[in-house]
Design a protein that fits this description.
Number of domains: 2
Radius of gyration: 24 Å
CATH architecture of the largest domain: Alpha-Beta Horseshoe
Strand content: 15-25%
CATH superfamily of the largest domain: tm_1862 like domain
Shape: globular
Mean pLDDT: 91
CATH class of the largest domain: Alpha Beta
Strand order of the largest sheet: 14-15-13-12-11-10-9-6-16
Low-confidence stretches: 361-367
Bound molecules: iron/sulfur cluster
Structural class: alpha/beta
Length: about 500
């Protein structure tokens, strides 16, 4: 598709808007009109004293257009011009494709944070009105924003200036899911390097703990994620968890999460190791309770494996279990998703995270036509809405939310929890509340300066074999942590 931008420089923003409706379209940006059969024209025109935002969409020869005057009352005219052009383009797509994304023209990853900023700056009424009329966000999503802001603010207020969280990366999985966009390696491929990875990871944990201690930092939460950490053997898990416990001051920790992830990696010995090492929260992630969908996405477990793993964890005393689901999986239907959610509710987890499928690697969606795609997007939107209603009626309420680029239907990921069981780390990482010290391959340390809102990132190498070969360099980068704190906190 050609994108003809005239009289403005919003190439990136208009391209992003087109991707709300056509996520995989190849877009060529021009700065003149082309008259192509598949094209978008976005123009800012001067008419007497007014500036007009004009958009025209042509898809396979069918055209619609829409235009509006730029509101002169708004002082940030550049932003308003961009938004007005975006709205006109949105209306064109809505007319021609018969589909209206729930988040309107809002494309950012942290809508709740933006909403909270608008509330603080301009008041709640203004923020609500702006979201509805300028960003075209629907009532339901606005409501979700409000609930998430409330949940997040309570958790953020518990953090102090010297707080930090620890993230440990275990980038291995039993097999690779077809939709996965992480760097995780399947166990077959990585089997031989795991022992060396574990040893180096423990050395990095030890060195990080020394730094945290010297800086007098207070550990709030620990999160071991991946990948699937329980891909490690019970002994390897014990080694890593032991390294955390022995080296960090755990007396201030309010949450210790391990993503047990795939049910086929969970057994009695591993759960015992987690329990003995003080893990307080685990995540068992079925994604769906439909066996044929599981097969379709390349998972090697069944829905009943999830039930068995969950019940075992309960019997062993885990009283804070999260379950992850995905809306919009290939071959899933609304009825099957409803069934998934009902099965999950029967297990009575403390929290449920509902993700919208990221289409980055969902090749089936990539190759389907526009019509199929819209059907899938509407179906996923229905799933997301249903999950919210069902969870809220069970007193499992939204407490944090974020969005990823290229999710089906431009939908959001939402964490729901019973009161008192919210995942603290999830909020801290998303809100960028405090420093996250991170260890392992693909881990990113984020240093937060509360006074100036600075965030410095230190990247570890992405892949396990790079982590092993570049370990010396990773360790030398750790000195930047002390330098940051010296600069910003003294
Ligand atoms: S379990 Fe998660 S990290 Fe592992 S392959 Fe599947 S989607 Fe990727």
């Amino acid at each position: 598709m050609k994108l003809c931008n005239i009289g403005h420089t919003f190439d990136y923003e208009m391209e992003k808007l087109i991707r709300l409706f056509l996520p995989f379209e190849k877009i060529e940006v021009l700065h003149t009109e082309c008259g192509d059969d598949n094209c978008v024209v976005c123009k800012l025109l001067q008419q007497d004293d007014d500036v007009i935002a004009y958009a025209k969409l042509t898809l396979e020869g069918n055209s619609v257009d829409s235009q509006s005057k730029i509101d002169k009352a708004i002082t940030d005219t550049r932003k308003e011009s961009q938004h007005e052009l975006g709205r006109q383009l949105f209306f064109c797509f809505e007319k021609l494709m018969g589909y209206r994304p729930d988040w309107g023209i809002l494309t950012g990853v942290r809508p709740a944070k933006l909403f909270s900023r608008y509330c603080n700056q301009y008041g709640n009424d203004y923020a609500e009105n702006f979201f509805k009329t300028k960003f075209l966000v629907n009532e339901s999503k606005l409501d979700l924003c409000k609930m998430s802001v409330k949940g997040e603010e309570e958790i953020v207020s518990l953090s102090s200036d010297n707080s930090f969280s620890l993230y440990i990366s275990i980038p291995f999985c039993p097999s690779r899911c077809s939709y996965c966009s992480f760097v995780s390696h399947s166990i077959e491929k990585a089997h031989d390097i795991i022992p060396q990875y574990v040893e180096l990871l423990c050395r990095e944990i030890e060195a990080t703990a020394v730094i945290a201690k010297n800086l007098n930092l207070k550990l709030e939460t620990v999160y071991m994620g991946g990948g699937t950490p329980t891909t490690l053997s019970a002994q390897q898990l014990n080694r890593v968890l032991g390294a955390i416990r022995q080296n960090f001051d755990m007396s201030t920790v309010r949450e210790f999460t391990v993503e047990a992830g795939r049910p086929d990696t969970i057994d009695y010995d591993k759960l015992l190791v987690l329990k003995q090492n003080g893990v307080s929260r685990i995540s068992i992630n079925p994604q769906t309770m439909n066996d044929s969908v599981l097969q379709c996405i390349g998972r090697k477990h069944t829905a009943s494996d999830t039930v068995v793993a969950f019940k075992l964890a309960r019997e062993m005393g885990f009283n804070n279990i999260n379950m992850d689901l995905i809306a919009g999986l290939p071959s899933d239907t609304f009825e099957s998703f409803k069934n998934t959610l009902n099965e999950i509710l029967k297990l009575d987890p403390e929290s449920v995270t509902v993700h919208a499928l990221s289409m980055k690697r969902a090749s089936t969606l990539n190759t389907n036509g526009q019509h199929e795609q819209i059907k899938l997007e509407s179906e996923a939107a229905k799933m997301v809405e249903f999950s919210r209603d069902a969870l809220q009626s069970s007193e499992i309420l939204p407490y944090y939310m974020y969005r990823q680029s290229k999710t089906v239907g431009n939908l959001e990921n939402v964490g729901y929890a019973k009161k008192g069981f919210e995942g603290l780390y999830n909020v801290y990482i998303m809100d960028e509340t405090h420093t996250i010290l991170a260890c392992g391959a693909s881990a990113v340390t984020k240093l937060k300066d509360n006074t100036q809102k600075n965030i410095k990132r230190i990247f570890n190498y992405k892949y396990p074999y790079e982590y092993i070969s570049g370990f010396k360099e990773i360790m030398s980068r750790k000195t930047e942590i002390g330098e940051f704190y010296d600069k910003h906190f003294k």
